[in-house]
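Exercise (ungraded).
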Amino acid sequence: MRTTKMLATVAAFAVAGCHLGTSGANLPVANQPGGAHVSLRTSTRAYSGELLAVQDDGVIISSDRIMFAPFSAIVGLTLEKMGGQYQLRTGDVPRGERLAQFRAVSRFPQGLTPNIQSVLLAQKSQTEIAVIP
Amino acid sequence: MRVLTGLSTLAKERDMAITRKIVLATMKLVLATAVTAGGIGCIVQNAYIRPLDPKNPPVEVKSPVKAHLVDGSTVLYPNGVRLENNVLVTPGIRYQLGSSTSVGSGRIPIDSVVGMEAFDTEVNTAGTVIMSLSVGALATVAAAGLAVAIFGSCPTFYADSAGTQVLQAEGFSYSIAPLFEKRDVDRLHLTPTADGRVILYVRNEALETHYINHLELIEVAHEPGETALPDQQRQPIIVSGISAPARVRDRVGRDLAEIVRAPDGVLFSSYPETVRSVSTADLDDYIDITMAAPTGADSVAVLLDMRNSLLNTVLLYDHMLGAPGIRSIDWVNRDLDHIGNAIEMGQWYNSRMGMRISVLDGGKYRQVARISDSGPIAFRDNAIVVPAIRSAGDSVRIRLSFIADNWRIDAIRTATVLRRPGPARIVSVTRVKMTDPAQNGPALAALRDADESYLITSPGQSFSVEFDVGQAAPGTRTYMLASQGYYTEWVRGTWIKNASGKAFTPSDASLVEAIRDWRGKQPDMENQFYSTRISTR
């Protein structure tokens, strides 16, 4: 019976004395104001920084500059300590719930309003967001 | 032949579902107790949308919460937050835009908040194969583009027809909490592929999390020219001798013959005056059907092709979930997870919603069957089997009663020749194809049995299921989809913002309020509802 098997499995894990999986309270983004730490690669180089916002066509990150990486340029993206579902590979363009999932762990899930964008750019002495080719 | 009618099978299925949930809840309690007592030290866990305490208004979120403010600030509530009169009153840690230095948050009006996330943990006892929301977005934000969508209610099933996916069914409508998990049976209108497969595309097009427990096909063998349909107990029945009723009129005496003659997209809806005049003393509309009494048969069938109107959706969205606002999370996740509350809610809902079928017997209509609401998206074919009790003029007179404007009916026909098929062949899911092929195996395992293992999908997700049905002569097989599960609605930011704070009470007064509300918003809502499906991938 599946129920019995399930309980047995839970009990077996119990004896092993471990926690499997992620606790919500331990997610990095739950304990600090910033977005998740992102590492991404394009065909020519790698970038890392804070995930600021997620748009329909790409992500905005804060590294040495404020940069926009279109999904079409990304060959690999991971969010640190967020689990396997927060990864993108070549050609991945998240939509619907998956897109919302990425947004929810960014600094600004609501997107960059003009005010937010101007403050962030001023901090980096930029006049516009750099686009990763 | 004699065809028995009644609700025993449905009741049995419901009882079994409740029993299973009680067992599961007990297991979770045992597990939680053991963990608390230190008896065991290891659990499988996931981050998820946290529950709230329903007995302690104002609402209190005990897990960590992050709030995003209109001005770009971010506020952390490491120990949760409390909402009082639309104000977040718990002291939080506020980070101004562009600053890494924190200050006290003070009290924050909910109007200043564009989105909030709650971070929590659950014990994964159910062997969930997909945790669709690893971080729960409590009220994530209009900017996500989702808050405008109102398309709702349960998974939708499509089949390929000449390169186009055609809607076939919607599963377990209005099963809005675990205790309301139910099994639906829908007739499919499709032809297997040349190599003997039935392929269905399952979509989550709503702002809901779907918990799909079980899918299987029921194959009904019959002669060419016969029609196989689910009856009111969702059991297959084969009918022939189909014709239009001799007479079909609604409560105000309108002749509906042309409207319900055939499934042609011309739909019955309740007469406006009938809807306008509802009160707690009289909520109903009805349709009276007269058919010629058959010779030598003690049962006849009324064939209905219909779907719900959006009245039910107004009731669910605006009154059950919307009006209480953020407290509706408590209501769904906690209140309805208690047997007593669920039974009270279920009894009220079943006594009012759906459709009741009566037969004129000795000058009075006697209820002989009831069918549940089936959802506002897909039309459903039903064969309602009723005793052929003769009335004046050698006729059988049947009444369909329902809450005014709860149904859109495309066709009403009658059948005088009925037979039960032999033992139906059950075809289990053979293959599941997820977006991530690595999930195909676990997803298949989750769907093959009605157990504690669920395939969970979130808005925008879709997958396909395949059934190897083999070859059969044309016109000799009808397939019905059995689907079992439940779903939970996502609480929209607009609901929280516009909430009256009034908790939903299952009562006729609430229903009258919902009907009046529905009358006011019907045209706009219908336009918006059917144009705001969330695109799937």
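Further reading is listed at the end of the chapter. For now, observe: Helices of chain A lie at 2-16, 96-104, 114-123. Chain A touches chain B through 50 residues (CB under 8 Å).
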